Amino acid sequence: MPGNGGDTEELKLKRTPLYEEHLRLGARMVAFAGWEMPVQYAGIIEEHRAVRRAAGLFDVSHMGEIEVAGPRAREALQRLVTNDVERLQPGRALYTVMCTPEGGIVDDLLVYQLDDQRYMLVVNAANTATDLAWVEEHCAGPGVTVTDRTLETALIALQGPRAAAILSRVTDDVDVDALRPFHFVGGWEGMISRTGYTGEDGFELFLAWDAAVSVWRALLEAGAGEGLVPAGLGARDTLRFEACLPLYGHELDRDTTPLEAGLGFVVKWDKGPFIGREALERQRHGGVRKRLVGLRLLERGVARAGYPVVDQEGRTVGRVTSGSYAPTLDANLALAFVPPDLATVGQRLAVLVRGRPVAAEVVSTPFYRRDRRGGGG
Length: 377
Fold this sequence. Notes:
With 377 residues, the chain is an alpha+beta fold. It is built from nine helices and 20 strands. It has helices at residues 7-12, 19-24, 44-53, 73-80, 128-139, 163-168, 212-222, 233-242, 277-286; strands at residues 14-15, 28-32, 35-40, 55-59, 64-69, 93-99, 105-115, 118-123, 145-148, 153-159, 184-187, 190-193, 202-208, 228-230, 291-297, 308-310, 316-326, 331-338, 348-353, 356-363. A hairpin with a 4-residue loop joins strand 17 (316-326) and strand 18 (331-338). The longest helix has 12 residues, at 128-139. The model is unreliable at 1-10 and 372-377 (pLDDT under 50).
């Protein structure tokens, strides 16, 4: 997790509307993607386990929100992303990626259909400016407007098996139990979506900037007897890692295609043209260059992003994209890219941890899959 870059950088960092709340709760703040964000409160492992056991509350207002609207918005988005926007209707969302013409991933994102002619794209914080320029280049024009809504939209994530029970205490007019995964109610003025990034059931609340503090406090109060804790970016990362949810800049980048990253399910071949389709078609028929696999370390050591992966002869064959101790599973695990012929479950490899080979084995993914406790997540 990036640290603070000194006084000069701190002066330039953006702050979410919940900044003072984080300080009041004793959060340790760090610079992340141009924002000053809480990395932890009581501790990453404690917050991680609270989300798996009960619930955690995350400030993710640093995420980017881009509105694409107009009579030709649907047509433009259908060309922009790999998933099938035609399957959407108001109140529905889908996960997808934007690709370059060469098939590399510009970003992964969620697309929400607000009404017949308005859509919201939720993109990664570190990529917001780049994504906005990409969307403007490929969508804006006659019949389509593109508007950055990031600095007017707060986003709070309530995640965990007790999330629905907690949220129901503060939403009199919404039956949260009836809200299905990747469905939402509301719009820019206030929206509840059954989505998340932790591998648990959960909700994301899109709010007006000045409404965030009151909602944050109400949720913490409603969850006080349910085990709800405020959680930072550190736990968010270990939670998504256990569930093998990809992170841009680690598993995803412009040198990696969705087919290589295990995201073939968001590439819909039965739709019309989209950016990168030809390159992906070639890879679909000719084979991928690399595959993302899960690794379980068989000896002491923690694999970190960038560490080399070697075969049994000691030859470098890949690299770790994410690695951590997994609190739920009590194991040291990693995600890594390796050649397709080494991607079979049971394959023995090794990770060079500070230059020392640590035995590892390819295992099935996701590492963690929640039991059936309702929808969402």
